[in-house]
Amino acid sequence: MTDVHAQPGRRPTHPRGDVPAVEVTDLRRRYGDFEAVRGISFEVRPGEVFALLGVNGAGKTSALEVLEGLARPDGGTVRILGADPLRQHAAVRPHLGVLLQSSGLPGDLTVAETVTTWARTLTRPRPVEEALAQVGMGDRADVRVRSLSGGERRRLDLALALLGRPRVLVLDEPTTGLDPESRRTVWSLVREMVRGGTAVVLTTHHLEEAEELADRIAILRAGRIELEGTPEEITATQPATVRFTLGPAAPPLPALPGVRLVEPAPRVELHTRDLQPALTALLGWAAAEDVALGGLQARSASLEQAFLAVADGDPTTHPTRLETGSTR
Questions:
Q1: pLDDT truncated to tens, each residue of the chain (328 aa)?
Q2: Rg of the chain's alpha carbons, rounded to an integer?
Q3: How many C-beta atoms surround the C-beta of residue 261 within 10 A?
Q4: Prediction pTM value
Q5: Nearest-angstrom CA–CA distance, 143 and 228
Q6: At CA 243, angle to CA 246 and CA 266, rounded to 5?
Q7: How far, rounded to the nearest angstrom, does the alpha carbon of residue 56 sit from its chain's CA centroid?
Q8: What are the strands of the beta sheet with 75-80, ordered from one edge?
Q9: Which residue of 37, 77, 183, 269 is surrounded by the most CB atoms within 10 Å?
Q10: What is the rounded CA–CA span in Å between residue 287 and residue 261?
Q11: What is the DSSP string of 73-137?
Q12: Closest by alpha carbon to 203, among 73, 328, 84, 42?
C-alpha cells in the first residue's frame, strides 16, 4: 500500500523512522550502450541525510533524475515514500522537494512572482515571505530573476525546493556558487528540515559539506557504489600519515609495528592504521637515539583521502559496504 496519502500533514514522532522514505534497489540507467548507473542500492530513512559522492560522470545525477521522477530506470526499482516517483508522480509530488543543478527559471519574473507561481502548484506551501526570509532573500523580492547573482539564484532554487515542506528532499549540488557564509546558512536549513523528519539525498563536490551534513555516505565510481558507511567508517578505511625529515647522520628507522614505509629517508612518509601507538613508538625511538624529526606531521585519515582512493580505483576499497552504521 502506498504510504504517501497517509496523514500528509504529520511528521514522524522521532527523526529516524523504521520505514525507509527512499528505497533504491539495483537501480540501472543506460544511455544507448553506455550504462551510467550499474546496479546501485541504498535506503534513506526519515530524519537522515544520505550523500552520494563521486567524480563527474560517476552516475550521481543520472541516479537522482530517477529519484526525482524525471527519468525511467532501465532496471531495478525506486520508491519514494512507498510510491514509484515516475508512475505515481501525482502522489509523490506534494511530498518531494527537488533542487536541480540548474533550474532555468524565467528571467522576466521577480523573485516574489517566481515563488508565488511555484506555490500555486503545491498543496500546502509556506507563505512567500517566509520562504524568502528562510534563504535570506526577503530584501530581493521585487528583483527580476535575470538580475540576481549566481549565488542568489541558487538560494532562490533552494527556497522553491523547501516551499512545499517536503518529506523527502533531493539536493543536487545545493551550494554551488555560494560564498562560505551562505553555504553555512544552507547547512542550517538542511539540519532544520532533518530535525523535522525530512529525508535528504544530497550530492556535492564539497567534501566538507558531506562531512558536516551526512549521516551516511556512498562513494560512486563508474556507476557503482564502491564504498558506503558513516563518514567515520569511510575515513577509517584509509591509513593515517606521518611525515618528517631525517638528517644524513640519522640511524636507520626501526621496525615499527603496523607501520608501512612509503617514502624512505631523508623525507620519510609512513602509513599506519593505528596512529597513536605508531607515533608513540617513533617518538620513543627518536628520543633514545637523539634523532631530530624535522617538520614532523601526523595526520589522521580524511574523507578526501578515501574519496580519492575510490576515484583512483584503489583495490583496497573496491567494493566495500561497511555494516556497522549502515541500514542495508
A1: 344 434 333 333 334 456 899 999 999 999 999 999 999 999 999 999 999 999 999 999 999 999 999 999 999 999 999 999 999 999 999 999 999 887 788 999 999 999 999 999 888 899 999 999 999 999 999 999 999 998 899 999 999 999 999 999 999 999 988 889 889 999 999 999 999 999 999 999 999 999 999 999 999 999 999 999 999 999 999 999 999 999 999 999 999 989 999 999 999 999 999 999 999 999 999 999 999 999 999 999 999 999 999 999 864 543 444 443 333 3
A2: 24
A3: 13
A4: 0.85
A5: 43
A6: 25
A7: 14
A8: 34-44, 22-31, 75-80
A9: 37
A10: 20
A11: -SEEEEEETTB-TTTTHHHHGGGEEEE-S-----TTSBHHHHHHHHHTTSSSPPPHHHHHHHTT-
A12: 42
The CA-based diameter of the chain, rounded to the nearest angstrom, is 77
Please give the grid coordinates belonging to residue 261: 614505509
Provide the 10 A C-beta neighbour count for residue 325: 14
98: closest CA among 4, 203, 219?
A: 203
CA separation for the pair 278, 257 (Å, rounded): 7
Q: Which residues of 11-45 are buried (b: 16+ CB within 10 A; e: fewer)?
A: bbeebebeebbbbbbebbbeeeeebbbbebbbbbb
**CA distances (Å), origin 205, targets 97, 101, 155, 197, 306:** 20, 12, 18, 25, 14
Q: Hunting for cell 551534513 — which residue is that?
A: 213
State whether the Cα torsion 27-98-305-58 is positive or negative. Answer: positive
| Cis ω before 127 (30° cut-off from 0) | no
Q: How far are the Cα atoms of 9, 43, 62, 73, 315 from residue 36, in angstroms, in the given order?
A: 37, 20, 7, 11, 21
Residue 281: phi and psi, rounded to 5, are: -65, -40
Angle, vertex CA 303, rays to CA 300 and CA 309, nearest 5: 100
3-state secondary structure of 217: strand
Which residue in 22, 27, 30, 3 sits closest to 77, CA to CA? 27
